[in-house]
Amino acid sequence: MTVPNHNIDTPSDRSDATPSETQPDILIVDDTPENLRLLTRMLTKRGYKVRQAKSGIMALQAVAALPPDLILLDIMMPGMDGYEVCQHLKANPQSAEIPVIFLSSLNGVLDKVKAFQMGGADYISKPFQLEEVISRVQNQLVLVSAQRQIRQLNAELEARVRRRTAQLERANQHLQREIEEHQRTQEVLIHMAFHDALTKLPNRALFLEKLYGALARLQADASEGFAVLLLDCDRFKVVNNSLGYSVGDELLKAIGQRLGSALGERDTLARLGGDEFAILLDGIGNLDRAVGVAEDLLSEFSKPFHLRQHEVYINASVGIVLGAADYEQPEDLLRDADTALYRAKALGKGQYHIFDPELHQFAIQRLQLETDLRRSLNDRGFMVYYQPIVALSTGKLAGFEALVRWQHPTRGLVSPAEFIPVAEETGLIRALGIWVLEEACDRLRTWQQQGVGSDLTMSINLAVQQLLQRNLLDQIDRLLADTQLDPRCLKLEITESALMENGEAAIAILHQLRSRGIQLSIDDFGTGYSSLSYLHRLPVNTLKIDRSFVKRMDGKSGNMGLVPAIINMAHTMGISAIAEGVETPQQFAQLQNLHCDFGQGYLFGVPLNCQLATELLQSQPRWRPQSPASRSHTKIYSDPISAI
Ligand code: C2E
Ligand code: MG
Ligand code: MG
Predict the structure, then answer these.
(1) How many Å lie between the centroid of ligand 3 and the Cα of residue 388?
(2) 490-495 and 457-461 strand pairing
């Protein structure tokens, strides 16, 4: 709407229709034709569009047909007067906003008040001045225009607010989604930090956390007892090495599930790493339940695990410790459970052991042993002793087995049975082993140079860590080159269990050793449960029958146990047999009758130091069952180790 010549803007988007986009539309309502004419002329002249109504009814009809921008309304009209018209207009939302200027000759204050009460926007007294009418009309139109602008601005503002609100809501939803995603990621990360990826069980960190809680509860209330069980699979390496790591992983998962199903709601099962699982039994007052659970868990291992097409049997050992208020930190409980586990394994595996403080003492002693071992390795505190090996058919000396001895700075001679396992666990055996190898080869070379050991073999024990050591072959090649020894004089002894646990890798190295002419012997044969098919693939020269089998040979009843079978098996495989632990002339005679090739044991001689071994060699001994000669040798020398 434009108010001509007066610079009044007209909102272009008026909600109510206008007769013209440019000219304001004014409706004049008056029953006096003269007024109508006068006003029409004057307003038309000013550029307004003018419509006329001679009565109230006509006015309402005109407004209903097309609402004007402004109404000039006479009050005094026959029929419906101006007030009533105004009332109708204001009652109708279509016309309520249209400004109404009353025209009247009623000039009383009350009339004017009534006019405004009816909703009139202005009041012009008759007879009117044209300029006043124009001026008041313009004012009202400016006002209307301004109101419309305000309305439009408001509408725009509201729309913007709505748009902004919608945008903010969207941004908020996005943020909410991001927060939720972040929370989920955080939950996953926390779960990962406290769980084992393979078995999905709690890991060491979470287990220690739970243990911490259990310990705190016990310290606050003595009736809140608990126990910790540490379970470790025996010979798990065999599974990994023979069936592969993925079957090993399957087995760990299956073990986790089986253990979980044997435990109660309150108990916590965790995988600490490798094949080690920990169990927290909460709310127990004494060891009975812990022992019961340990027995249940161990019996779970009596059933085979079915993994892909394999049926796998595996054993486990368990260490048990009962919670006590004087433990300061959860790690100490794990340490003691570990000590008990270690003991269970040492006692023969497949069983449980309960921690007692003496075991802790034992662990401390073991640590001391390890420290002393390291020191002695630097200080050359070891010696090699030589135990004779006899060719049973002739009774002549066939060679020696080199056995290491430790001259402990304060304890005197320490048995290999005590320190070799520690040296193996700590890896010190590699340095110790190569030293024994060098020492024994040097010794044989010296004897050969003295002309006393030309046809002797030197048997040397090789620990599994040495066998799998990358530079073993280099070391041996260098040794052979330095000593100029015939490799065939050298016989390396590897225990059956070491071979079993290291499968293919071990076989490959054995072949390399054999290709150099070095002889190989399976030590402690009969204790490692190797299968015949596996045995057949080993490139060895000798089976060394474990002394537990020789010991069980009962001469009187003629019961030889497994010894004849082992000797036959060796011969069928085209290799020789040697019996360990021959202590009696009867055993000697029986072994001779069974055509066992070699014998070793206290009957022929205990392990001897270098000087005594040289003397024995020089005496060119010959042993015969029941002959005084054999006895005299056992009497002359005694093994300091066997007295420990
Ligand atoms: P092994 O290789 O089976 O050695 C034979 C063990 O049986 C020796 O024990 C020997 O003293 C003992 N022995 C020999 N004859 C008899 C007998 O008639 N009766 C009885 N009861 N025992 C007899 P030792 O010297 O105490 O060695 C124990 C084990 O320590 C060895 O068993 C071997 O496995 C290991 N060992 C010893 N020296 C070394 C070494 O230099 N390197 C490695 N890796 N292991 C070694
Ligand atoms: Mg041996
Ligand atoms: Mg042996």
Answers:
(1) 13
(2) parallel
